[in-house]
Amino acid sequence: MSQTWVQAANLLAAVLFIFALKGLSSPRSARNGNLLGAAGALLATGILFVSGIPLNNLAFIIAAIAVGSAVGAVSARRVKMTQMPQLVALFNGVGGGAAALISVIEYLEVGSQDRIALAATVFTVVVGSISFSGSIVTFLKLQELMTTRPVIIPAGKFVTILVAVATVVGAVWLVVSPQAWLLVALLVLSLIFGVLFVLPVGGADVPIVISLLNAFTGLSVAASGYVLQNVLLIIAGTLVGASGTLLTREMAKAMGRPLTSTLFGAFSGTTAGGAGSGSDRPVRSASPNDVAIMLGFASKVILVPGYGLAVAQAQSTLRELADLLTEKGVEVDYAIHPVAGRMPGHMNVLLAEASVPYEQLKEMDEINPEFSSTDVVLVVGANDVVNPAARTDKTAPIYGMPILDVDQAAQVVFLKRSMRPGFAGIENEILYDPKTTLLFGDAKDSLTKVVAALKTV
Amino acid sequence: MEGIALLTVFILSIFVGFEVVSKVSTVLHTPLMSGANAIHGIVLLGGIMVTGAATEPLEIGLGVVAILLGAINLVGGFVVTDRMLEMFKPKKPAADKSGGAA
Predict the structure, then answer these.
(1) Which strands form A300-305's sheet, in the order they lie side by side?
(2) Is B45 in contact with A230 (Cβ distance < 8 A)?
(3) Residue ranges making up the domain that contains A260
(4) ipTM of this model?
């Protein structure tokens, strides 16, 4: 195939990627946008094989594509919606790893690159590796294979700065005098830095870090495009790098967290919140029957779903409860915090799965003024997003995050598994408030009992 | 291609990238991140190119790993984004039959 046609096809693929991102910015066109992106990727990959560039090791290439695609597709199909954020983190990490590897291989093959290409190689290796190891740590945190609290290692600040300086020095040295062992050393240093970079980040801030690492991977892909003189990689990588940076800022804004305090907050030592303190203070707990009566005789109820609801797979039961209350003439709304679940928009996805009508889902700014005129707020498996410490306690890791003002309502009912603190690992004062009632147990179990009791009220 | 031409493409892409996501609602942050994540999976092409040019066993081995990782990123990324967005399709009439909740 002539080079003009190959370039035209790559141009088309680039345009499809732009349409994909544009489409993903609006609910109506999002799904088609994603399909356009996939079409662009398919086109570009297909064209590469008929473009006439020499392809040795074709059997290995085809086999690796087949296995990788199968692994990606099957894990994406099988993953539970609740675990989807960590899968995205993992996909992002392997992309960064691939970019870093590609630059290493190109370096081995070509041997002597000019200065700019060398700089691009170094950039890809460093940023791609940081994205890889950082994403693995975010995966481990979200999967709760390791603690979700900020991890503070002794002299962590010092060690991190040392590794960062060594990485920069190594990078400059490599550009000045290229040596293979130095490239390997740089790869290892960057991997370590990625881990150190993410360890101090608290659980609630992890989504912001995923988004940032996503932008990192984009930029490293763009740099690898420069190394390989491939325009499509430059365009696609830069698009993701730029849009990902903007998205990271938007997310941080939605959570009311300046990006710097998200990333470096743990170093200043302010985030080790007082979890577990005072857990033996008295709380008021109630039976499902009491809760059903409170709800049944209210005139306005707001439901606040959280991650615990999703884990218990209780979305449909909650919807059943809402329907039942509506039938009894109670006004029911769902209050959706922007980061309810594990990521911005995650809860909307989970409730849509249980076919909760979209119109009943109220966003935070819309619902917050309504709490003061609400009789009962039912908080199901949420904690951090209703914690007033975000407003009052300057030492809390979530300080400054906008929250749902459930403490303004006349009564608050928490369905909770235990008194364990939420993902951010801090105590919630509302739990001890006299107007708060707790119903302990699995969210689905409790909701089922409340629904049964409500039918007899 | 000339360095300056590649730089032009790079700079213009930054502006396009900022522009296309400038107005996005919080609800779509997660799918958008996931979709962007899938797009950088196109790094797969780079993996194919370097493996196609490889001669040493070490290069081939690393190349195969790079392709594997790139393909997981690309295919998995688009599939998982599609699964999220499946949830946003217009409600079926079935959702209405449960007693005027809608």
Answers:
(1) A361-363, A331-336, A300-305, A376-380, A411-416, A436-440
(2) yes
(3) 79-268
(4) 0.88
